[in-house]
Amino acid sequence: MKKNLESSRGFTLIEVILAMTILSSMMILVSISISRASKAKVKIQAEVEAVSALRDAMRMIRTDINQAYNHYDYEIEITEQSKKKTLPPALPGQPPPPVPPVAPLAPVVSQRKSPATRFVGTENTLDFVTMNNGRMTANDVQADFVEVGYFLKNCTSHLGDAGRGDKTEKSQGSQCLFRRVQKIIDLDVTKGGVETMMIDNVTEFSLKYLIEGKLDWVKEWKAEKARYNIIPDAVEVTLGIEKKSEGKQKKYSIQYVVPIHFPNNNKASGGGPQPPGATSGNGLPTK
């Protein structure tokens, strides 16, 4: 009878309190770990989205610059060459033959205009013609190249969830990078077209230009004459943004040296592109 009573005894009060204390401690530790993991996920997700947006914008800029199109009008050069007077070589010991008189020709007004594929760049703006173009709709009348431009402009950005379900905070103004696209190439490569915002909260967008045979980067590039256009061989692009994370402002930046695939510059006799203002072997200016 005594053995049956001893075997039916339950937990003591101290044992129950000790078990509840251990269980509560484990639950608190688990909840703290889950909370930290959730905060770390939100932080990492925000950083990934910021870096991804930065890389996507830079990828578009790199592709446009790499496929920059420079049209060189050989027809005009042939016309200029045909207008030059050529004389037969003089025999040794004899004076050169006289130049026969040429009747003046009536001026002919030509309606033809050379396509303008200018390349204009400053420290934080860039406008040029690129082959990075795709036909979005069937039977769309457009060329294989388009006019593009990159520039900074004030815009309104929204601080919010970035797709995570939180409420969007109040909007604020910031510097945004815009991409301008125009399908029709006109005489002014810096205006016209449709503007699209690529990325907001931009803190830095700087450009430098390099030509073959030169060691120093330049901060401005203006090739504004349609007939003798000289474009750089490479462009250094630096893009930086600033994002708010956990109440702190964090900066992200990326830099690339983008080579132009085919500059198509007028070559000098030495094989390299001529500097602006120089003349080629046939007397034509290079810019």
Description:
The protein has one domain (15-76, 113-162, 169-259). 24% of the residues lie in helices and 26% in strands. The chain has 3 helices and 9 strands. The strands form 2 sheets. Strands 5-4-3-2-1-7 form a 6-stranded antiparallel sheet, covered by helices on one side. The protein has a 3-stranded antiparallel sheet with strand order 6-8-9, with helices on one face. It is elongated. The chain starts with a helix and ends in a 28-residue tail after the last strand. Residues 162-168 and 275-287 have low confidence and may be disordered.
List keywords for this structure.
single chain, 287 residues, 3 helices, 9 strands, 24% helix, elongated
Concise synopsis of the structure shown:
By secondary structure, the protein is an alpha+beta fold. The protein has helices at 2-7, 13-66, 74-83, and strands at 119-121, 126-130, 146-158, 171-182, 194-199, 202-210, 221-223, 234-245, 248-259.
Write the layout of secondary structure elements.
Layout: H1 2-7, H2 13-66, H3 74-83, E1 119-121, E2 126-130, E3 146-158, E4 171-182, E5 194-199, E6 202-210, E7 221-223, E8 234-245, E9 248-259
Antiparallel strand pairs: 1-2, 1-7, 2-3, 3-4, 4-5, 6-8, 8-9
Strand elements, count: 9
Principal-axis shape equals elongated
Radius of gyration: 34 Å
Q: Mean pLDDT, nearest integer?
A: 79
Assembly context of the chains: single chain
Helix content: 10-25%
What structural class should be given to the helix and strand makeup? alpha+beta
SS field, number of helical segments: 3
Give a short account of the largest sheet: 6 strands, antiparallel
Number of domains: 1
Query: Looking across the biggest beta sheet, what order are the strands in?
Result: 5-4-3-2-1-7
The percent range for strand residues is 25-35%
Low-confidence stretches: 162-168, 275-287
